[in-house]
Amino acid sequence: MFISETKHTARKAHRCDYCRGTIPAGTSYLNISGKWQGDFYSARGHTDCRDLWLALYDEYADHGEGMAFDLPEVISDLVSPQEAQESLDAQRGYFPHAVNRLEWSLRRWLADDDAEGGAHV
Ligand SMILES: [Zn+2]
What we know:
Blueprint: E1 3-9, E2 14-15, E3 22-23, E4 28-36, E5 39-45, H1 47-60, H2 71-78, H3 81-92, H4 96-105, H5 107-110
Antiparallel strand pairs: 1-4, 2-3, 4-5
Helix pairs in contact: 3-4
The chain binds zinc ion (ZN).
């Protein structure tokens, strides 16, 4: 098993695999690649989104299966909007921009009082 993280400067805009937001040209981002249970994977994301993902890992990961990079999907799949809002609020002081981008991607689902976990957004 190995993992590598390298920092790059975006020459053109990219999409972040963690928050689904834009990585603007000229800003830095991380390229993550590794091997998990025999499969190679790679992801590209904002540096603070990577940190937020690691911070949420204990809360959301299935310890046999790990955790997908797509945080909107991971979160909306497992908990209700109210619970999601609580865990995002708990991270806001550490990763304010990453939390903002994630709330933007989840805005319709978070605003739905009747939504349950298990929704794919
Ligand atoms: Zn991001």
